[in-house]
Amino acid sequence: MRMQTLENGQIMVIIRKLEISYIADNQKELTYRSLPFSVELKTALLQYKLLNELCNDNFILAKKIGEAPLTRQGITAQSKKDWLEYLDLKNNINVHRFRHSMTIFLLNNKVNLVQLQKFLGHSDIRNTLIYLKYVDEHFDNAIHTANNEFYK
């Protein structure tokens, strides 16, 4: 993640075949997702960079001088380890489950379905509607609300 990306309050993530990929000129079918984040997260990331004496001024997710660079797998493994420790969970969870959990949390807190569709990067709202079977409210009411939002 580049530092200048922090300036506009968004992280640009490149997704190809459902995994985070590097930008390459010869790749086709890249899909861009823009995920907003809070001022608090920006502050925490900058503090993390300072506390860990990271070497590259242009990157947050970098290693100390003289160490091998972080890989996608390394970032995923460390993030998973940190979250499992923080949540006091066993190792039977993967990063994608955090995405599902966040989605269900947002639905239970009445986040607009069209906004959630955009947040998840779903091109078709039917993919977002699949999550409705996991929420606390009645399914028919949720479908009705989704249809009203979608067909405005």
From TrEMBL:
Chain ranges of the Tyr recombinase domain: 1-144
Keywords associated with the record: DNA recombination
Cited InterPro entries: DNA_brk_join_enz, Integrase-like_cat_sf, Integrase_catalytic
This protein's record includes keyword rRNA-binding: no
Protein biosynthesis among keywords: no
Pfam name, any one: Phage_integrase
Name assigned to this protein: Tyr recombinase domain-containing protein
Organism of this sequence: Psychrilyobacter piezotolerans
Lineage: Bacteria, Fusobacteriati, Fusobacteriota, Fusobacteriia, Fusobacteriales
